[in-house]
Design goal:
Layout: E1 3-7, E2 10-12, E3 18-25, E4 33-39, E5 45-51, E6 58-60, E7 68-73, E8 78-83, E9 92-99, H1 104-110, E10 115-116, E11 120-124
Parallel strand pairs: 2-11
Antiparallel strand pairs: 1-3, 3-8, 4-5, 4-9, 5-6, 7-8, 9-10, 9-11
């Protein structure tokens, strides 16, 4: 059974940091582009950052450039999202997703992918 499980969310003060993890089971991530997406209350889902299967190509939303870093460790079948300088507007449920066919840019722009995790909540508040 293909499964993606996010972890690392929580409550953090503005300016703080969190690292999200996306662990895959039932399949290997080697052949999949992976994306992080988020959905804030009352808003649509948006692409935050995406990374190619090799890790050589990445894409970031303008709102997180310079603050978030996506990376992957295919040996551990895990993808990470390092989030620094967090702002209240970063508050959302964060999801990871995998896709074997879409490009990194297509995933992040359309916020579409084949396999999704259930999400982890990130709350940035003082």
């Amino acid at each position: 059974q293909l499964q993606l499980v996010e972890s690392g969310g929580g409550l953090v003060q503005p300016g703080g940091s969190l690292r999200l993890s996306c662990a895959a089971s039932g399949f290997t991530l080697d052949y999949y582009a992976i994306g992080w997406f988020r959905q804030a209350p009352g808003k649509g889902r948006e692409g935050v950052s995406c990374i190619s299967n090799s890790g050589t190509t990445t894409n970031y939303a303008d709102s997180v450039k310079g603050r978030f870093t996506i990376s992957r460790d295919n040996a551990k079948n895990t993808v990470y999202l390092e989030m620094n300088s967090l702002k209240p507007e970063d508050t959302a449920v964060y999801y990871c997703a995998a896709d074997a066919f879409r490009t990194v840019q297509a995933m992040c722009i359309t916020a579409h992918a084949d396999y999704w995790g259930k999400g982890t909540l990130v709350t940035v508040s003082s």
